[in-house]
Amino acid sequence: MSTIATEKPLTTDITAWIESNLSTTGLVQDLRKEGLSYFQQLGIPANKAEEYKFTPIARLLEKNFNFSTRNAEAKSIDINHYAIPGLDANVLVFVNGVYAAQYSKIISPATEVTILPLREAIDTKKDLILVHLGKHADHKADALTAWNTASWSDGVFIHVGKNTIVEKPIVLYHIHDVREGQTITHHRNLFIVEQSAEVTVIEKFDSEGTGNGFSNVVTEGVVAENAGLNLYEIQNDGGARYHYNHIHMTQANASRVNTFTFSLDGKLIRNNLQLCLDGEGIESHMYGLYALTGDTLADNHTVVDHRKPNSFSNELYKGILDGQSKGVFNGKIFVRPNAQKTNAFQANRNILLTDKATVNTKPQLEIWADDVKCSHGCTTGQLDEEAVFYLQARGISKETARAMMLYAFAGEVLDAIKHPVIKEYIDTIISERLHKNF
Amino acid sequence: MSKDNQVLEELTSKEYEHGWTTNIETESAPKGLNEDIIRFISSKKNEPEWLLEWRLKAYQQWTKMVEPKWPNVTYPAINYQDVIYYSAPKQSAKAKSLEEVDPELIKTFEKLGISLTEQKRLTGVAVDAVIDSVSVATTFKETLGELGIIFCSFSEAVQKHPELIKKYMGSVVPVNDNYFAALNSAVFTDGSFCYIPKGVRCPMELSTYFRINAANTGQFERTLIVADEGSYVSYLEGCTAPMRDENQLHAAVVEIYAMKDATVKYSTVQNWYPGDKEGKGGIYNFVTKRGLCAGDGSKISWTQVETGSAITWKYPSCILKGDNSMGEFYSVAVTNNYQQADTGTKMIHIGKNTKSRIVSKGISAGHSQNSYRGQVHIMKRAEGARNFSQCDSLLMGDKCGAHTFPYIDVENSSAKIEHEATTSKIGEDQIFYCLQRGIDEESAVALIVNGYAKEVLNQLPMEFAVEAQKLLALTLEGSVG
User: What value of ipTM does the predicted structure carry?
Assistant: First the structure.
């Protein structure tokens, strides 16, 4: 394995930051301390570290953040400005990492689902917290996850009981109020979906103001037998957000997980998405679309770990890169020795619109079982000029023709969204990005 | 005996057919690596001062470097002080013609099917034969000389054509390129050198045959091919080693320099001793191979069939610097028992309208691990670059592993890159079909594997293709069921 290069001075600064913010009481204080000690051991990865080869996270943190000041004070915000229009859902709002009850509303009945800020759940749901928190997302291998484990300020606890389908989606708005300086936030989410239950969760990230914000979000959980989870990540923050997002879900027999990651704006977006298929007959779909412009860097690292036989995974990530943006994709598929009859597919397709934009992709298959069907494909190219010409010949302007083609390219991911309101909203923001106005 | 029977017999007979040793008197340097050893090698080879300095500089660099740990292979730490860096068959003076070469040596190569004398009449392949550290014979020198082609051992080239060596050695693989390239630069003992002049099409295949004979030695040879404007050459490389319980190190460097409109085709059938069924012994094959398409319209094509070595770790690469230049990489890597392979290629597109094509077929059986690792890098000014990559893996048995690590880095919007990879196993229906037609399971597997690898085998020159096919079957023998 690659040796992990680290940034020493920065690690020391951040360690001091963690220590000054570390809460030493409560149920999870041992876990927090463990997180801190692993963070110190691992250190912030330097540019040479394989997993962060194209994402200079150390440099960006060093340049843009001061680890000796506190977060900017959160003032009142207009939540409607950020809300997904027309979506009838449970809403939880976090401003600068703190749960804002005044903007939140939970409409699903308590018999259907337990939705709590994690801080509250620590007191009221001790048993489940002790079983699951810190048990799925690996803070022993990744420094940023370790940092989150030590420093999370709040997050969401979702528990769906057996045989329940949660009708209304749960939306988490993560807002950085950076009107008066920088903010550094750590969120921790825990999702427990019991047998034959189903739930949809949406996370959306926005900034109020122009200051720098660093968010470190770790989501972990289990999807039990025959249960389902739909997870949407909407990363369209026009502010100076540096976003690290780590999702780790463990799946049991015949469970279904669908993830959708839309990366549209921000300074840095790093997604670590890991699905651990620890059962048979599982179906997992991972969809991603990154349509970037300006100097945005979006780095998607995904891991599908097939541990048992007879499961299916499918991954489709598409990228449209404009301006000086940078797209990074690393998709790992592991098929463990006894995971026979696995079907795993992965595709990554990119369109480069300018010479200043770059794409670095690394699809990676690691297979230790022989009776499997695995494939990956990846392409990088540009719009088919002949097709653009075809449209132009029919009286459509070049700009519109290109926008149409890009929209169609993105369509493959959009089509996979089942929820009509979410689909419409994402369609709108993507059309906006692609200047589609026909 | 019909041809089929012969193939069958070969299939079912022994494990590694080149595992014998020859008793020839050798002259060796003491074990270990230090500046004195390098001076010793240099003086043995009667080298000019500049080359010794070059070596010492490389050694200095090497001592500052650390052995890379990123390949997907595991092996116990190599003790670089426990290796003999120079071992040569004893010869009174450098043989002037084949008649003067030790008959035992000629027999050695005859046994390997590389008859140094017969070759002249039969196949029309010019051979440079390298045993342990030195080149023992080069055939067809005169015929090639008439066309102005220089084909000789590296040491001879150092003596006779120092200006060419000085100019091109290290121009493609710099001394400090990587750990093993630096080691090789410090201690390389021989190898082949080839220069094709302007506009000449080399009329025959040129070939180097490497053989490790002595125990405890490492082989460090260097090959340098310079193809001048508009020339063409096809180059073959073969290698074998005796069966020994300890691991032996082979760290070679191959450099290809292609000028405007030149074409170089480099084919390897690598059959180093892979170790026994328990994974004991075998060669560590850590090789740096790189070609530079320096001129416009040049082309470098690598074809490799990797069946041997306990550990294979090499990435024959192309730097596509000239506009409209082209790089190709065709590979079949087979691993069985406890073999490990981490192999692939790098295609660095610098010039405009450069093209590259990668076809890699991995086959793993037994407890082996087979990795493809490759990079396609399209630089900013590589307008209109085009790449197609395909890497397939075939798994036989549930104890082996297949891994792919392709890196695709694109910095130019007019580039078109395609990459696809699949992993599968031999279908039971395919085997059944063969069984029905009276083809036993072992032959069926050989048949299917050969079909799977055909795209690559087709790129090999005829003589090699036949050998490679047999080798594939042999390596996989006993891996079914």
Answer: 0.77
